[in-house]
Batch of 3 targets.
Target 1
Amino acid sequence: MILSRPVLALAATLLVASAGGSTAAPTVASPVGLWLTPDDHGQIEVFACQGKLCGRIVTSDKLRADPGLKDAANKDPALRDRPLKGLVLMKNFAGGPARWTGGAIYRPQDGGTYQGTIDLIDARTLKLKGCVVAPLCQTQVWKRAG
């Protein structure tokens, strides 16, 4: 069977279109990864936990000076002996891809747990807001490490 030039041209066009035309959807930035906090040169690892977002302490200036630091300010005396390194301080944030809500943020400096929101501003900027009760809130901006 001999194919005419128009049929060959059409076939070639279809092959090129199907090979190059299937572009994947743009990737949405993820908050999962290592983040730098503005205080105490802290590093927090944000990770997926049972379909939600959580975060744990990796290091800080104080932990570099004393890796054995404990959660001494915890309001529960039974928890004051747990190590700060590796402590999960963000739990149960649901949503995405740019905003997560309904979670809790634990603040080892004062032993308080606050209701919070997480906003992924861009691939390198994360904004966290923790509230005792609105309008009594505090906001921090974290930058992605690396």
Target 2
Amino acid sequence: MKQVILETAGLTKSFDKGNAVLNKIDFSIHQGEVVVIVGPSGCGKSTFLRCLNLLEEADSGEILLEGKLINQEKKNVHKYREQIGMVFQSYELFPHKNVIDNVCLAPLLVQKRNKDEVKEEALKLLKRVGLLEKAESYPRQLSGGQKQRVAIVRALMMHPKVLLLDEITAALDPEMVREVLQVVLELAKEGMTMVIVTHEMEFARAVADRVIFLDRGEILEEEKPEEFFTCPRTERAKKFLNTFHYE
């Protein structure tokens, strides 16, 4: 069994008094594993990812990165975020910077890495996702799918130990979804450790080593994808999956 990279114990988060968005979540992901989290809107999926990345502060519970408790140590938050990369639904690219500057900014500014080495790596990654010719373009000149691929490259440039992907195709036109998901599938094949929140069920089935079904802030099921999608154990999961089938 490979090393556990990221885990939580009893993770709880509430936004309104008495309304737990996350309720005592126990979770772990091993090196090279892909875990997909599915569930209805508002069930706590995105909040969970934001807690893992320390963008949200949990009310209680523990988050451990390679066995080290990280959510109760305030001074090293930025260091831990470097190791837990996150790609958002809304790209979050700087509009006044071109593609190459967007993806090189954090390694240069935060990690103080060599400029020539960073640029060389950035160009290799842009080529890998089919965007080398867009290196000098600005976000306004890109399609939604291209922007999201740039956002993935930007996250990879920090050499994260685990990558969190939060509904990265939700804002895309259907034709652009496949080009983004193909990049993620390739990352999975190469052994990237990822936690993915998605509503793309066929993609989830193809990419996941394990599927977690979250509802009302609790893990109701945790199965291999074939088991979850063909024979869910709970009535709630069956009802959720039935919403993706049409007569």
Target 3
Amino acid sequence: MSQKNEIAIQIPSADLANINQLVAQLKTAVAPYIQGLTPDEIAGMAKMGDKTVAFVDKVKDYTDSNPEFVPANMMNVADFKIDVAAVVALAPVSKSINQISDDLKDTLMLCGNEAFIPALMYYGNVKFNASQGVASAKTIYEDLKKRFPGKGSKKATQPKP
């Protein structure tokens, strides 16, 4: 029985080179405006999501119309407005990149599945032929089984005295 093939892409080397060049350009273009965080840093932060954007935007407006409520010595309104503008500017970019990233992950998963399953079928057939004494299959099997450490037959353990 043949495996269903849902994807069969061949990316021309010129296209792949162009894609890699564009990715490098994107990384260079955004580098001055992005910052990585550790998991510990992320854990300690307030998270701003889609629902809080409107809230933060209203607060920005109120800092202009009602500046008397700005906490003295605790809030720098100019820095706050810079951060709000950065969120507004970067959010659509992030969404687009995340969509591309998700689609790439899905494509890699699909291609990987369609490559790994037949490889396992081949491996199983080689393993069977090696068990039947086919010399050339034994050599291939010995080479391929290295990729599956701990998956071989387990030796019986001696009971503890």
